[in-house]
């Protein structure tokens, strides 16, 4: 049973991870939920989402974060994946322009979406500038952040900004 706060309210937000294969979606999630990084991460099999508890303004919020089970390789991510999502992290790899070119927001129900340029630890082989990322985010009305799942830069922050923005929109 889920815990309720003193007013009996429960907050459960579905958040989806979107982006090309190998941009680091699964590692962003494992960094956020377990503070782990996996260098040979394989396609997630069987696990559809992880639930992470976050406290906002004294309220317990459950973030249910969905990761694709590798379907993005086959462009087979279905509408069920996006259905009911309140938030989205749209991830590209700052070292691969093709992953930036394919960014597009898909999530009609989302009240908070963030464009995430991951692998910012790889500055020496950067292919997408911070300015390009910012400009696209502004054009599409998204939050923007560069992250590294490897060294943990901005990972918690990115998820927390999205969760807080959803909270502000629903409460
Ligand atoms: P997904 O396919 O989008 O889920 O990507 P994964 O999380 O499986 O990561 C793909 C590859 O990129 C793996 O080899 C990871 O170790 C690597 N990777 C993920 N995030 C980072 C990061 O922030 N920095 C670096 N240097 N490598 C990363
Ligand atoms: Mg993955």
From TrEMBL:
| Membrane-spanning segments | none
Which family is this protein grouped under? Answer: Belongs to the small GTPase superfamily. Rab family.
- Which named protein is this? Ras-related protein RABA5b-like isoform X2
Which source organism?
Answer: Camelina sativa (False flax)
Phylogenetic lineage: Eukaryota, Viridiplantae, Streptophyta, Embryophyta, Tracheophyta
Please indicate which part of the intact protein appears here, giving the first and last residue numbers and the full length.
1 to 171 of 210
């Amino acid at each position: 049973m889920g815990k309720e706060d003193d007013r009996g309210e429960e907050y459960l937000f579905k958040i989806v991870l979107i982006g090309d294969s190998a941009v680091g979606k699964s590692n962003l999630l494992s960094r956020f939920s377990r503070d782990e990084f996996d260098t040979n991460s394989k396609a997630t099999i069987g696990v559809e989402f992880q639930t992470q508890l976050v406290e906002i303004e004294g309220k317990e919020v459950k973030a249910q974060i969905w990761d694709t089970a590798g379907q993005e390789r086959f462009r087979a991510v279905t509408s069920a994946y996006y259905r009911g999502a309140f938030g989205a992290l749209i991830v590209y790899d700052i070292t691969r322009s093709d992953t930036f070119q394919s960014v597009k927001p898909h999530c009609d129900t989302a009240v908070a979406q963030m464009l995430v340029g991951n692998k910012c630890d790889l500055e020496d082989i950067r292919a997408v500038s911070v300015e390009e990322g910012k400009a696209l985010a502004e054009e599409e009305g998204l939050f923007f952040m560069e992250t590294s799942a490897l060294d943990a830069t901005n990972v918690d922050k990115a998820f927390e900004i999205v969760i807080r923005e959803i909270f502000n929109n629903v409460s």
